[in-house]
Amino acid sequence: MNCSTPEELSRVCDEFCIKGRFDSFEEMKQGNVNRTYKVNFEREDGSFKSYMVQRLNTYVFEHPIQVMDNIDLVTEHIRAKNTGKHALHFHHTKERNTYVIDECGFWRLFNFIPSKTYDICSDLNVIRSAGNAFGEFQMLLSDFDASLLYETIPHFHDTEKRYESLISDIEKDPCLKVQSVKEEIDWLLSVKDQACVLTRAYKDGKLPLRVTHNDTKINNVLFDKDGTEALVVIDLDTVMPGLVGNDFGDAIRFAANKVVEDSEDSDKAGINMDVFKAFSDGFLSQTAKTLTANEISTLAISCFDMSCELATRFLDDYILGSPYFKIKYAEHNLVRARCQIALAKDMLRHLDEMNDIVLSYAAKG
Ligand code: GN1
Ligand code: MG
Predict the structure, then answer these.
(1) What separation in Å is there between the alpha carbon of 209 and the centre of ligand 2?
(2) What is the per-residue burial (b if ≥16 Cβ within 10 Å, else e) of 85-110?
(3) Cα–Cα separations (whole angstroms), residue 250 to 50, 131, 218, 279, 305
(4) What is the CA radius of gyration of the chain?
(5) What pLDDT is recorded for position 264?
(6) Cα(246)–Cα(298) distance, rounded to whole angstroms?
(7) Which atom of ligand 1 is nearest to the CA of 32?
(8) How far is the CA of 312 from the centre of ligand 1 (A)?
(9) Is residue 222 within 8 Å of residue 117, measured between CB atoms?
């Protein structure tokens, strides 16, 4: 059934009691798991208002109501702090639910915020602001009771478990792809110990759990229309207990890569050290005071670890026939994996330099 039709979207908006005439919609292509649409309504006074309608991927999020419960609690906590910043506003149905379930799946709706987002950006002020926004987000939740949160995707950033899944799927090889990706597999397995440093340090009791965002791609920060001021951190589906290195490392592997995440030019992938510096500056200006020495010492390696984790996930999904990440063509996940591997290799070459930068900004913060 085609769920990307004006009729279906208009029906969903109706359930959320949106007033006015459904005018038009467009699908937003950024996310790799959920489907997102901007819908435009004409109100009685002739003005237009837009909303974001999202169909949650229930293959990825098996308990979508728990996802919404988490978001409710987290946004409420942030709103109560009256930072004067934007907050995500989810609409309710007549039954006071923040979701609608129909034949197409699980829907939610939130206000559209006129804004600009970046997939890749060389403006260091923007990067610093993004670092600041993710650091601030974590600080706003530093007094939030983590035991109230569901673990929406168990073991989400457990890199060891991600490796275990890859290894077990290599053995099954359901789509007969393994032979063709031997080089990628061999490299990922050869760096397994280093890729799991962050996960191991946590399991050995050396790192505290915090409430983290867990999906800190720079396009999850909305900037104002000029593109300079960070307005709000979005995509709260994976807010869960986690490690500071998960947020820092994930942000760097996305924002500081010289090419986009799914670039076919993987030989051009690598870490842009200016972006690394600017993001570290912003992030640590917010968080340094609260971080332990162990946490600080794992930030640089966390970038390598998160790049390997994502490479493992993309490659695993490719081996399974891509049931998880949205793909635009058959080899898309393999291309993504190769790009993360090339980035990770370059990070290894810069690891000492990255560590020094982290230490210097941590000392300033
Ligand atoms: C997914 O859909 P999106 O872009 O928000 C994924 C992240 C990955 C990212 C890679 C729930 O995020 O973990 O880092 O793709 N989200 C989930 O681009 O798996
Ligand atoms: Mg996400």
Answers:
(1) 20
(2) bbbbebbebeeeebbbeeebebbbbb
(3) 30, 12, 9, 12, 9
(4) 21
(5) 98
(6) 10
(7) 2
(8) 13
(9) yes
Positions in the chain short of pLDDT 50: none
Please enumerate in sequence order all residues whose Cβ is within 8 A of that of 324, keeping only pairs 6 or more positions apart, or say none: 33, 59, 60, 313, 317
Note the ligand closest to the C-alpha atom of 62. 1
Q: What is the pLDDT of residues 146-181, one digit of tens each?
A: 899 999 999 999 999 999 999 999 999 999 999 999
State how far the Cα of 117 lies from the Cα of 24, in Å rounded to an integer: 22
In contact, 67 and 56? CB cutoff 8 Å: yes
Q: Which residues of 53-72 are buried (b: 16+ CB within 10 A; e: fewer)?
A: bbbbbeebbeebeebbbbbe
| Cβ of 287 less than 6 Å from ligand 1 | no
Residues 6 or more apart whose CB falls under 8 angstroms from that of 164 comprise: none
The token duo for 115 is 């804004």
Q: In whole angstroms, what is the distance from residue 96 CA to residue 88 CA? A: 17
Residue 220, token pair as written in the block? 């999850």
Q: How far apart are alpha carbons 250 and 238 in whole angstroms?
A: 13
Instruction: For residue 121, give the nearest of 272, 325, 270, 335 by alpha carbon.
Output: 272
Residue 353, pLDDT score: 98
What pLDDT score was predicted for residue 234? 95
Q: Collapsing DSSP states into helix, strand and coil, what is residue 312? A: helix
